[in-house]
Predict the structure.
Amino acid sequence: YMFNKSGIREFRSSTPDHFRARRSKFFILLGTLIFKFYGWKIEGSLPNKKRVIVAAAPHTSYEDFVRAFPLVLALDIKVNFLAKDSIFKFGIKYFFSWLGGIPVNRDAPVEAKNFISDLGHKRDAILLGITPEGTRKKVIKWKTGFLRIAKEIDAEIVLTGIDFEHKRFVFGEIFIPTGDNEKDINSLKLYFKKYKGKHPERY
């Protein structure tokens, strides 16, 4: 069963051309085999828009990335994601950058937001993955920078559940911000409660 019905082929075939990374067949196959080895599947699709932000939650473990990176290869998508700059160390810095990682200094969040905003304006198309919590630890206040970025670059926000209970990534609803960040964050928290992360107690 784990090698069937992963949803990868269907998702990949429906992916807008401007989000395709066009990696070699080797990396696509490698990512597919690793993702299917974990027994995970993917549901939903990406909207056919030029600017999309994938807001994924609940983010409670480093294993979220371990499941996501082979999926990025398998889907052959060109996605950027934010990660703390401390993990961009010698030896793996190139790998994270090749995969689309953007180092972020948590002490300078405005700088990161401005960088992404500029990137979004310069590119014809951009797919950005973010985690609203901003960390794997339990937090009370979620980050709101991605809401402002979405507005600045006119991007659609796709709510994506990381569901360890059913071993799946669910690309679900399109979220339309109201302009009230606190209200929007509360709505997002309620939406993502239906998914169970690796460590539910951190959510």
In short: The longest strand covers residues 156-163. The longest helix spans residues 109-122. The radius of gyration is 16 Å.
